[in-house]
Amino acid sequence: MQHMIELQAGLRRPVSGHYPIFTMKDNAEERGIADFHTAATIRHPCSRFISAFRYLKSDLCNEGNKKQREKIGLNDAESVDEYVQYLEAIQWNNVFGHFKPQYPWIMNQDQTAVDVDNFLCNEQWDEGIHRIKSIVGVEEIDTRRLLNYRGLGSSSDHFLQNKHEKCKDLKPETRAAIERFYAMDYCLFGYDELPPEEDDVCIGTNNNAESLTKRFQDCEEKLNQGPYVISYAGRLVKISES
């Protein structure tokens, strides 16, 4: 019975789908995971958007996602620029899960505090893996970014199958729209307009849940100044629209 509970809780197999941290930590004491380390990987919002767009447009995405393409406007967009233009026209309402801002996933349920202790940066992947190994206290761990059970092979195989444009290739107005929608992600995780280099410092290196909560509060104050406020979804909206 205990083994079945662990299976249902996702302790003995990967957790599929998208879940915020407060859901994954639900009933932590009862499930015996209250002392678990928590970690999340973050990524530059523009790079993440492009990757999600190309993934959902490709044959790599699952059947459920393929069925959603028409509903979320992907069938009529051949480029990232076109899709962002479409999202701007509908004011980014009810965006698909892959395009939602990152920060709500790592916050507590009332969205007032960061609830993840360790942050790995996609751009500095190896540094993050070495850091989490040290925190957890293990020497040997499978660090492949994509698992064979999904049929994608290694991360290098995935990138070869799904090459795509970079942020610098997008129109300036496209990048500006992405920056507006993901304003909190850019601010909270310290990202500039273009993605960082591999030898840059990941914000998770010197920050934890407590310090990032303070940074979140500072970002809220900063982003809520002037003619715009930040909505729950992370989008900057004019005060007259809020």
From TrEMBL:
**What GO terms are given for molecular function?**
sulfotransferase activity
Pfam families, per database record: Sulfotransfer_2 (PF03567)
Q: Which InterPro entries match?
A: P-loop_NTPase, Sulfotransferase
GO cellular component terms given for this protein: membrane
What top-level branch of life does the organism fall under?
Answer: Eukaryota
Protein name per its UniProtKB record: Uncharacterized protein
Protein source organism = Chaetoceros tenuissimus
